[in-house]
Amino acid sequence: MKPMNSDHALFSRPLILGASVSRGFGTTDGGPGLVISKMINPDAVVTNKAMSGHTSVESTRDLRYFDTDPSIVLAFDLFFWDANREQTGKAFEENTKKLFRAYQERRIPMIVGKVPVGVRFPEEIRRAGEKESARKINRFLEEVCTLDKGCLLYDPRACFDLMKGPLSPEGKPYFGDSMHTTNLGNRFCAEVFVGSRVYRKLLPNTQE
Predict the structure, then answer these.
(1) What's the rounded Cα separation, in Å, for the pair 77 and 201?
(2) Is the model's pTM score more than 0.85?
(3) 3-state DSSP call for residue 121?
């Protein structure tokens, strides 16, 4: 058996946290976290604990952080409903600090999604990003998720802006509704993310 390379090892046992996009709502591909993981490591054993329509406090309240011995935690839309429902008070801050501290103390890398601010589409995500709660969450994430702590921030806007519009050049939809990406949308964003190799910043002794 060939030994795993460092990229494969990083994505050998991903744990996915988040809401409906991460859950794969309306798709057959399991969501962007699963697509990215399999794109990097086809043999990845993925655990998806995302919960549609739930805030981060709700979806991680009873989470057993280490049950699956995750090699990395992917949380691309974990904080969407906190922002959209403007639930950014004490419970949010305490729960988020607890979550990040747990994985950082175990040196388990994390890739965490910011709430997209300033996007043109889809409509529901655009509206959420217009709220002050979105900016507050992003500022908070910038404090608790830093590379020196093994945590990488990802802004989905980087992908949405490259889409140019809600339809592909072939006229196929990137979004199934005002909030959720299609299989095509997930694939597009996954290819952008993996192609950027930004995740390699989490690998030891790498300058990328």
Answers:
(1) 20
(2) yes
(3) coil
- Alpha-carbon distance of 55 to 115, in angstroms, equals 13
Name residue 110's beta-bridge partners: 73, 151
Using alpha carbons only, how large is the chain's radius of gyration in Å? 16
The runs of H, that is alpha helices, within the chain are 6-10, 20-23, 32-40, 56-60, 80-84, 90-105, 123-129, 132-144, 157-163, 183-196
- Answer for the pair 34, 189: CB distance below 8 angstroms, yes or no: no
Q: Is 186 helix (H, G, I), strand (E, B) or coil?
A: helix
Task: Say if residue 116 is preceded by a cis peptide, omega within 30 of 0.
Answer: no
Over the stretch 27-69, which tens digit does the pLDDT of each residue have? 999 999 999 999 999 999 999 999 999 999 999 999 999 999 9
| Contact yes or no for 181/170 (Cβ under 8 A) | no
**What would the two tokens of residue 156 be?**
């989905």
What is the distance, to the nearest Å, from the Cα of residue 60 to the centroid of all Cα atoms in its chain? 14
Cβ-proximal residues to 205 (8 Å cutoff; 6+ apart), any chain? none
Beta strands at 47-48 and 110-113: parallel, antiparallel or unpaired = unpaired
Report the candidate in 104, 73, 97 with the shortest Cα–Cα distance to residue 10.
73
CA distance 149 to 143: 10
| Cβ(7)–Cβ(206) below 8 Å | no
